[in-house]
Every structure is written in C-alpha cells, then in structure tokens.
Amino acid sequence: MIREYRDRTAVITGAASGLGRALARELAIRKCNVALIDIDSSGLGKVKEELARLGAVVTGHCVDIGSEQALQRVAAEIGSAHGTVHLVINNAAVSASTSFANTGAAEFERIIRVNFFGVVYGCRAFLPFLQKQAEGQILNVASCFAWLGYPGKTAYASSKGANSPTAEWASRFCIPARYTRPWFATESPIPSSGARVKSSS
C-alpha cells in the first residue's frame, strides 16, 4: 500500500479530461511522477503541459486501452521513461445513452472492450512493475451505475459492474487493489498521505 506519493510513479488512463485529469493533477501537486494515457492526443498534450508547469515529471502516451498489444507497448515505454511504476489508476471509459434494444452489438462490444477489458489489460500490463515494488497499488474506477442501474446505460453499467472481480484478482498477486464507484466526476479517490482508499460496498 502506498503511504507517500512524493517521488513515486503513477499511471493514469483516461487522463486527458474529467476525473482522470483531476487525479493526475492531484498527484502532481503531491510531487508524484505521472504517466498519462489517453486516446485524445490533443487533450493529453494540454494536460501534460499543465502538469509540467507544476514541476511534475510527466510523460504522455496516446493509445487505445482496448488494445492489449498497444497497451503492453506503452507499458514498456513508461518503464523506460520512469524506471518503475507504483500506482496504476484504470480510469478510462466510454459510454452511450440508448436503450438496450437500440444498442447494436458493435457499440455494446466497444464499451465492454474499453471499460472492462481496458482495465484487465491495464492490470496485466503493469503488474510486473508492481510486483517488483515493496509497495504498489491498483485503483480501478467503476461507477455508481454498476449497482444502481440506469435507463439507457445497460452496456456502461454492465462494463463497470465487472470491475470488482478484477480488483480481487489483482489482490491474489499480493498487490493492494481497490475499486471506487464515484457518484460524481468531481469526487477524488486519491487519499491524503497515509490514508487508505475506501472502496464502496
């Protein structure tokens, strides 16, 4: 479990906007080195510049997390740039607002591929780094939709609900893993130094 963020290295997916950007900024303020991952190259560049102005050691990596091969390549890049990884935040997600009957197979599969398999691929890609550390942690960002359900969000809710077992799987490798189900994008699951992440139940 990470007790201090200074001089540690965190990987954040979906870091170009929203909660991912907020988490990256919070970590940078705490003097944590950050590796930003997003498919939005323009947004990624802006966040990278913003965090660099805070004095953070920051790298940006444009990739589709739904591709395990591409994510493995980026993991190698991050390893070369930062030397190691202490914290992995699987935050990236996509959604669609349409009824179950009107959600095509391709769209349903796209959401599952990014929101669920993107988390699986993220855990697999960075697990070797975490296993080498005396401390390390995985945080999978789910959603309150995972247990509330919501009209027009069947694919999204299904993909987010699948993330809890992924955290339990990582824990079997002696890597502290949590998942959080924020109500709002402004909620930050990054605790103060020495505090523990409390996951929803």
Short description:
By secondary structure, the chain is an alpha/beta fold.
Structure in words:
- The protein has 201 residues and is an alpha/beta fold.
- The protein has a single domain, classed as Rossmann fold (3-Layer(aba) Sandwich), CATH 3.40.50.720.
- 44% of the residues lie in helices and 14% in strands.
- It has seven helices and six strands.
- A six-stranded parallel sheet has the order 3-2-1-4-5-6, sandwiched between helices.
- Helix 3 runs parallel beside helix 4 and helix 4 runs parallel beside helix 6.
- The longest helix has 27 residues.
- It starts with 8 loop residues before the first strand and ends in a 21-residue tail after the last strand.
Number of β-strand runs: 6
Mean pLDDT: 81
Classified by CATH, the class is Alpha Beta
| Content-based structural category | alpha/beta
> Which range does the strand content fall in?
5-15%
What kind of assembly state do the chains in view correspond to?
single chain
Specify the biggest β-sheet.
6 strands, parallel
Order of helices and strands: EHEHEHEHEHHHE
Give the name of the CATH superfamily.
NAD(P)-binding Rossmann-like Domain
Q: Provide the spatial order of strands within the biggest beta sheet.
A: 3-2-1-4-5-6
The portion of residues assigned to helices is: 40-55%
CATH topology: Rossmann fold
The rounded distance between the terminal residues' Cα atoms is 20 Å
Given the structure, what is the number of helices? Answer: 7
